[in-house]
Specification:
single chain; four-stranded antiparallel beta sheet; 206 residues; alpha+beta; 2 domains; Beta-Lactamase; 50% helix; two-stranded antiparallel sheet; 17% strand; elongated
């Protein structure tokens, strides 16, 4: 008889456990961690404890994820409020860059607004085509030069197109020496919120 047949029989005939309750209590099976045997009830308790540990780990991860989201939401709120202190395009650009560094601990920020500073055709085409932020491990087009002397040391980038309707009005680039700070598979929900906030703040000055 195959093991699968025994398992199927027990699933379909649960009264077996009532009929042979005493026998089941006497059966000794290998302990899951070796070295001795254990009873079926004890083995069930071990299985339940292991399942509980898995559930506790999942719960812990969910709580940590929620805390991280709450912390990011607060930072975005602080960032939004900080931009209200700007009185000119230059002031606003300075506030955007400085607060991204201070609030989000982004080590390097490059903000180019097309007004008065036209980009290359490749950068303009890229910004117009992208609807969402793009994270990469290498600089795109000619944007590496935007970071000056620190450029050779940068290994991760987040490109946030700034938009007004269907057209781009600028490009915000976040960069880091840490290759894992921004990477292609990372979520971009909060980056997109930052892009929308910056775009909205910039429009009255353009």
């Amino acid at each position: 008889m195959r093991e699968e047949d025994v398992a199927l029989y027990l699933q379909n005939n649960t009264q077996f456990f009532d009929t042979y309750a005493e026998m089941l209590a006497e059966i000794a099976i290998p302990h899951p961690y070796g070295g001795r045997t254990t009873s079926i009830p004890e083995r069930q308790m071990i299985t339940l404890r292991e399942k509980n540990k898995v559930l506790e780990k999942k719960l812990h991860d969910l709580i940590e994820f929620a805390r991280e989201n709450d912390a990011l939401q607060l930072k975005i709120h602080q960032f939004t409020l900080a931009l209200f202190g700007a009185h000119s395009l230059m002031d606003l650009q300075d506030l955007i860059s400085s607060n991204l560094r201070e609030i989000f601990s982004v080590p390097h920020v490059a903000l180019h607004v097309w007004k008065g500073l036209p980009p290359s055709a490749e950068v303009l085409s890229f910004a117009d085509q992208q609807q969402l932020p793009v994270c990469t491990h290498h600089a795109l087009h000619d944007t590496l030069g935007w970071f000056g002397e620190v450029a050779p040391h940068l290994h991760s980038f987040a490109y946030l197109p700034l938009r007004s309707g269907n057209h781009s009005i600028g490009l915000l680039v976040l960069a880091s020496e840490d290759v894992q700070r921004f990477y292609p598979e990372m979520g971009t929900v909060f980056l997109q919120r930052i892009a929308e906030i910056v775009s909205s703040a910039l429009q009255p000055t353009l």
